[in-house]
């Protein structure tokens, strides 16, 4: 079973620099490299009969019988453990990212245990494929996943997010058959590491909160609430462990202080708030920096020179060797709906890659982003992986080259996107899609070529830094 331990960032439309909604996540894996790709699933390709690879759960055909929409995805290219579609935007500009692996506690597991995969149930492998093509609003995602979890159960604790041009909803599974969800305020952002994240919850506010119909009664019946007043779902269903203090909480703490330097606190603090507000409007560049971060300018930076060797290994960073795919699903409000959906995508460790803003109103994706399972330098996934592993050998030298590469790549992609937005203003149908496909190809080629150039610069700089050398004195 693939292990994924990610970091989710959500930005409401009034918290973003351009009025768009943005849901982002780094899809991280384990010790084994898991190549990720980028593809479009057209309605004719959406399965009408579905069986999970891991749990062998069969989905009733009537749950797949409704008309499906075209959608983008970022699947595992091997398919050995299922599709793992990860994230995408459908043809009605509804976005979904799934999933963030989260924590639980023994109290809820004693009431509603998660399933053993041998018993069936759904997991990260399944959720995007079974949900995204059927959504017409962000809240539809909450209803659809809630239905699937209640009917089929789950063998994991997961968080996931849904967005449209106006709203963002975040959902977390609770035990084997329950769930909770919260609408993110338009002026707020969220940073969600690998723990149960939703805190304050109001069962009476049905505009902003949703849950399994029997969840409130279940909390009361089994005495699950440790607080004297109110409902804090992290206290009720989540964890507060040493692992949280070292693996999860510091990631949130660092980004909170990036978005608001007055946030303060300590890296291991257990009760950092779920809903937060930045001291400025948040950009794509902010999210990329956050998803690439490794505690810069603190003693905990593995690449830094402030801390001791022990401090450098104290906390798990967001940018890590196990980043295999990172995305921002952006639904824009300042352009026509035909070009509103943009899937910003980067493969490999975020310390040495760049986002590419792909239009999602397309029927195919650039060849270089259609990854192969085996090492292939024609594919950006493998090129980025090589750059990151070489860069890791001397970050002080190669990090400056990467900064310039990323600045250049993002600027060029922004320019292509601005030009394309203007050029397609009066286009529609196939003519429009062909133009967007061409723009996506141009951006993919641009970043691929820039990455090759970066590798060349790293080789040039590294030539004289090799240990195996002997200077000629003639």
UniProtKB/TrEMBL annotation:
Catalytic reaction equation(s): an L-aminoacyl-L-amino acid + H2O = 2 an L-alpha-amino acid
A single MF term (Gene Ontology): dipeptidase activity
Keyword Zinc-finger: no
Keyword Cell inner membrane: no
Keywords: Dipeptidase, Hydrolase, Protease
Family assignment from sequence similarity: Belongs to the peptidase C69 family.
EC number of this enzyme: 3.4.-.-
Range of residues in the leader sequence: none
Superkingdom field: Bacteria
Record's protein name: Dipeptidase
One GO process term, biological-process aspect: proteolysis
